[in-house]
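Subject: sequence -> structure tokens, single chain

Hey, anyone have a minute? Need the predicted structure for the following. Not urgent.
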Amino acid sequence: MGSVPLPADDAALREGALDLDALAARWREAMSASPMTAEAMRGADHRAQRLGVSGWSLMTHAGAAVAAAVRALLLQADRWGSGPILVLAGPGNNGGDGSVAAWFLAGGAGSGGAEAPRVAVVLVATESRPGTPEAARAWDRLERLPSVTRLHAATAHEVALVGHGIEKASIVIDALLGTGVRGELREPIRAAVELIHRARAAGVPVVSVDTPTAIDLSSGDPSDPVVRADVTITFHRPKTGLLTRRGAALAGRVLVAPIGIPPEADPA
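Reply:
Had a minute. Here:
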């Protein structure tokens, strides 16, 4: 959008000098766009790919934007390097965005202005691999980074084991479920949401990817349990569900990042 590079191509995002206000200003075109529902966003995503924008490109820009927001929040709160970054990644593309964010935070794209932190990425899913090609690619790539630990939690018990000492994390990235959330949460996702509750109660900040898990991005209606985020970073255009009273209360500060969806992919 405009003359500002997309997130994965924007060197300023990796230099660690931009705070949340600066990110909002940098992405002001996306921030000020007209809101859309989750269904409209899925349609725009699909049309963008039919127009030649790859799903991997969309995920890469989304993950880079999440990493920038996480870095900004940690530096503002003086928590950078205070403990590991914990990414709770679901089996779909929302989890893939989280894995890409981990890649950028751990220095996969080259070091920025701050030393790469330790990052733990937990695949919260019954299957041992992510369920989409892009998310699987993002997950596999993390194996090459020495500061990243990959874990798999297939049950509520395994989520509890992973969450032991959660209060020592510097931040939690909620990348469990995105636009496709519907109805009651199932295990192990439910246990992961409850783990995020514990982290936040201990003073650990939470950044949600696209939406706090268990909020309907169209209506703003939450399931139970639901994540309460300090910052939510959503993509392309604001979402109607995050503008409702209930959605806004759970989303915290909302940033909207461009990810390369062309205007012609938007609904008429």
